[in-house]
Amino acid sequence: MVRSLVKILLSFLLFAGGVACGEIEKPLNLTPELVVLDAFDITRNSAGLCCGIKIVGTETVSSVTCRYGTSIDMDHRLDCEVSGSVLVSLVDLAPNTTYYYCFEVSNGYGRVQSNVCQFTTAPKEAPMLGELEMLGKGPVSVIVQFELLDNGGEALDAAGFYVREKGGEEKQVVIDRGKAPFLIRLGDLKQLTHYEIQGFAKNEIGETRTEKLEVYTESAVSVVTAGTLREIIGEEELYAFQDLTVSGPLNGSDVRTLREMMGCAVEGISTDGRLSRLDLTDASIVSGGDAYDGSHYTNPDVLGVGMFADCLFLEEIKLPYGVIEIEKNAFEGCAELKLFNIPALTAKVASSAGCVNLSKIHVDVTNEKYASHDGCLYSADFTTLYWWPEGKRQIPESFPEQWKRIESYAFQYMQLAELPLPSSVSELGIGSFYASGLESFTVPAKVVNIPTALFQECHRLKTVWLGKDVGTLSAYCFDGCPLEHLYVPVGDFLPLCHEKAFTAQIYQNCVLHVPVGAGKLYRNKECWRNFVQIKEDIVD
After folding, report:
1. Three-state SS for 277?
2. Alpha carbon distance 261, 234 (integer Å)
3. For residue 306, how many other CB atoms are within 10 A of its CB?
4. N or C: which end of the chain has fewer CB within 10 A?
5. In angstroms, how far is CA 67 from the centroid of its own chain?
6. What is the pLDDT of residues 309-326, one digit of tens each?
């Protein structure tokens, strides 16, 4: 608006100046000519004025004054900056009032006044409100807010919300009208019930209401703004849930709240929360908020390290659909966890220790990286086993025919005493059976390498059969094992053995069983000769 006015005035001045150049016989000391435009940007308390000044002759403008007032006398004066176009902003005006104004200009020889113009300020009115928004919803609560766009020129007498159970009586809730935006948590609602909510603000002119917001209280919690989960649920209800469904964005503060609801606060401090079944299918992990466990922060669509660690009452969890990664030990120490799902978009999964009752991992059928067989986590083509649930205590009736590889630590803390693997398995990962409950084990015939820490900390393992194709035994593969019998059916080319594959206790207490006639080879071979007891009793 202002730029348009300036352009109009400049056009006028340039045109007028061109005419003046042709009239060389005019007297030189003439008063300026003025052009006053209509007032603009008029509100209840302010207005903008604009005046163009055309110099006639050779003199310059020495002063410019704007006069205005509520009568033709225009008793208010405002000195203006001298220039070809003058812009004035009038403030502290009275609403619904007519003002008169003009401009006076002097060039030192004379003074000229423009014609008198007038404008009327806008009247006072009822407040103007923004849209009523829902910030979150719980089973018995809802958080809503609205903005005050304009107070109508008067201080508010009251502001708040109208709440009505559909078909019921309307109730008014008045809040502190000094706060903006106007926000409230409406608690003590009924589950599975329809409500109508309106925001309102009132001044001496009248009352304005927002459009009605219809809300249905379900059994789930809907989070609109990350970080508000605790406020939505409310302190009085925080430990009242055993089953909960949550949708919407969740940051570190929200995860922290969920952990408390599952009995575990920051730094492992226990709470009265007993939440055991959690459905986050329609939720999403976003960045921001507090550290969920005191040291780790959320990253978008990542189930981070220790995110639900030590939540002792968690039994079942459905993860957000958009989770792309589950980091190591995200569920560490969740002793009651029995089931959780791998969503469709998850492309990276690491196992968690201490889930002693986890017996089944479910994978979304549309996931392109992983698949589930008998509750275990495999690659989508079933060639690699990634995670044998720690609480799985039964040997499957069958294994995938395509199975060839075991990922590192896939069987860690497994509780089975024996596990006959199929002959198709040919590759074992580092620490595959770390700290498992195995008491005896037969390495599949196609396995060539016994990897680092394969049976480390297997405190019950006493008997192991190696396959005929074993060529190497890596460091710490039997570290911490009370091994009593080791069968090595290799006769002609003895396996290479790392100097730290066995402990001194194993050399002393374990019987090394070798093929008949191969005893001399083992007694003369580095590492193997350290066994105190070497027995030739393996027959082809």
Report:
1. strand
2. 12
3. 21
4. C
5. 58
6. 999 999 999 999 999 999
